[in-house]
Amino acid sequence: MIENYTVCNCKQVTYADIANALDTHKNFDNVLAAFDDVQKVTHCSTGCGGCHDKVMDIISQIMMGH
Asked: Domain residues for 14?
């Protein structure tokens, strides 16, 4: 298991929050759709937007099984 850490400081969203939000995502071939779902659940990347790339990277890693 990967160590949990804060990804979005504005909304206090952690790696685990993103992983948990992805648990409800059924379609693992579209990272942008997964990002939208994660954003709806966690509200990450809706403040300053500085974590957008980090969130996308995490979603991609999780979807690829890493």
From this structure: 6-63
The per-residue pLDDT for 27 is 64
29 or 15: which carries more pLDDT confidence? 15
Say what the pTM is.
0.87
Q: Would residue 34 count as lying in a domain?
A: yes
The domain that holds 35 is classified in CATH as 1.10.10
Domain membership of residue 54 (yes or no) is yes
Surface-to-core class of residue 46, CB atoms within 10 Å of its CB (0-12 exposed, 13-18 middle, 19+ buried): middle
Residue 19: Cβ-neighbour burial (10 angstroms; 0-12, 13-18, 19+): middle
Whether 19 and 62 have beta carbons less than 8 Å apart is answered as yes
